[in-house]
């Protein structure tokens, strides 16, 4: 197995996370980045071996990216992990989940119509809605003592709005780390069903689950309404393959499959993954489970370390309990009440690059999202820098 404590030098490569920090954030180049959601862990050995083997064949021409081996690997993974039966005809390629959101918003709504999101939430949701000239309808999560839950009364009220076409659900939720329970998922889907609205369910973090929790796909939790549920998945977060640009979009409804073919495949010829993403995805879904277990256990330990550190050194910070993802969501308002000042301190005094909570919505002001998918020594350095900047004698 991999040594997850190993520090792999990524500066000087094309890694977005580690390079051009001064240009992107106006900070020193020696700032420590724990922001964008990719891992600082080496890929699983079966993935690397499969890619090396593919390179030994010297021809890289056109290939059938969605052949039987590929679709069996994808559907087999979801059957084993979630007891979720998928059909080949329900799988569609996108170079990423964020592009898929753009495609789906364009497919399923018209300019001026509304789409519900649940802030604080992954900021491309709102960005893609606005870029497509639709209206963001916010159903904010309720936070009580650092723990988040859905506001179902508000959701039902907003689902009844005539201009609302549907919603984008984040499960597991980024950044607050909720793995929505089956009961919560059923309630969301029932509200959508009662109002004849579709749901796009972003489940890209579905495999990154903290110990003691279990992810349930929305379409499996409420199968009678699955035709109005489109699920976005990818091996990229699970196996650290974002640079290979591959995601699998699951569309059950024939009318929506025809729309995807018309709007995405016919218009833009976006239909299949490339040679290397295909190879990596098959290897990941066939032979990557042991590596994933090790990664989830390591991230569990990083969360435990983070929690202990905050209790000892920054006791007024509020760490949201994490059920899924490898992202920590921390309320620092007791130390710095102004979001802009908190950002300045983090970047220029602590010299750490995090995702500012304000990116995820106004109810994220004063929070920071920290990526814990890194060697623990990097996390320790980050936290020591933060404590040194926030606590002064």
Secondary structure layout:
Elements: H1 21-25, E1 32-33, H2 45-55, H3 68-82, E2 91-94, H4 97-108, E3 114-117, H5 124-131, E4 135-138, E5 142-144, E6 147-149, H6 152-159, E7 164-170, H7 182-195, E8 198-202, H8 218-221, E9 229-233, H9 235-239, E10 247-251, H10 254-268, H11 275-287, H12 289-313, E11 318-319, E12 327-331, H13 339-349, E13 352-353, E14 355-356, E15 367-371, H14 376-390
Helix pairs in contact: 2-11, 3-11, 4-5, 4-10, 6-7, 12-14
- Please state how the strands of the largest beta sheet are arranged side by side: 2-10-9-8-7-3-4
Gross morphology is globular
- Number of distinct helices: 14
Total DSSP E strands: 15
Low-confidence stretches: none
Q: Summarize model confidence as the mean pLDDT.
A: 96
Using only C-alpha atoms, the radius of gyration works out to: 21 Å
SSE-based structural type: alpha/beta
CATH topology of the largest domain: Aspartate Aminotransferase, domain 2
Give the N-to-C terminal Cα separation. 44 Å
Described by strand count, sense and barrel closure, the largest sheet is: 7 strands, mixed
Looking at this structure, what is the CATH superfamily of the largest domain?
Type I PLP-dependent aspartate aminotransferase-like (Major domain)
Write down the domain tally. Answer: 2
CATH architectural group of the largest domain: 3-Layer(aba) Sandwich
Order of helices and strands: HEHHEHEHEEEHEHEHEHEHHHEEHEEEH
Give the fraction of residues assigned to helices. 40-55%
